[in-house]
Amino acid sequence: MAVYTVSAHRERLEAAFQRASQVEDLRVQADLAQLLCVLVAGFLEQATRHLLKVFASNRSDPRVTRYVERRLARFRNANPQKLCDLLGDFDPELRTRFEEFIKGERRDSIQSVVANRHQIAHGEQVELTYHRIRGYFVHVRETVDFLENECTS
C-alpha cells in the first residue's frame, strides 16, 4: 500500500486540472468539473485527516495517536463548520486561527465544494464550470497548506 502524502495528492490534482484545461468542448469540460469537484472534496478530507494524525503523533503517545486516527476515519463532509469543530477539538487556538484564515472566499469555496460534491454524489443537477472549480481548488489548496503548516510545525 502506498504511503499517503499531501504533496503527491496535490500534484495528482494539479495534473488532472491541467488535463481538463486542455479540453475544448465546454460540455465535456463541465462534466470534468464535476469529477474534479469530487476529487477536490476528497483531497480536503484526506489531507485534513492525515495532517491531524501527524499533529497527534508529534504530540502524544502512540496509543493516543491510534485512537485519534480511528476517530478521524469517520470524518466526512469537510464543510467549514465541521472543520472548525474538528480543529477546535484538537486545539481551541488552532480553531481561532483557522476561522480567521478561511473568512470570506476560502470559506465560501470550501462550502461550495462540499455542497456540490453532495449534489453530484446524489445525482442532482449542478451548474459547475471548470473555471469555477479551479478557483475553489485554489482556496482549498491554500487551506490545506495552512493546515499543513499548523500541524507539522
Describe this structure in words.
The chain has 153 residues and is an all-alpha fold. The chain has one domain. It contains seven helices and no strands. Helix 5 packs antiparallel against helix 7. The chain is globular and about 55 Å long. The two termini are 27 Å apart.
The largest sheet is: none
Unreliable stretches? none
Evaluate the radius of gyration. 16 Å
Q: Which percent range describes the beta-strand content?
A: under 5%
* Share of residues in helices: over 70%
Which structural class best describes the helix and strand composition?
A: mainly alpha
| Number of separate structural domains | 1
Mean pLDDT: 95
Instruction: Tell how many strands the DSSP assignment holds.
Output: 0
Q: How does the overall form come out from the CA principal axes?
A: globular
> Secondary-structure element sequence?
HHHHHHH
What is the number of helices? 7
List key phrases describing it.
153 residues, single chain
Topology record:
Elements: H1 6-21, H2 26-59, H3 62-72, H4 80-90, H5 92-102, H6 105-121, H7 130-152
Briefly summarize what is shown.
With 153 residues, the protein is an all-alpha fold.
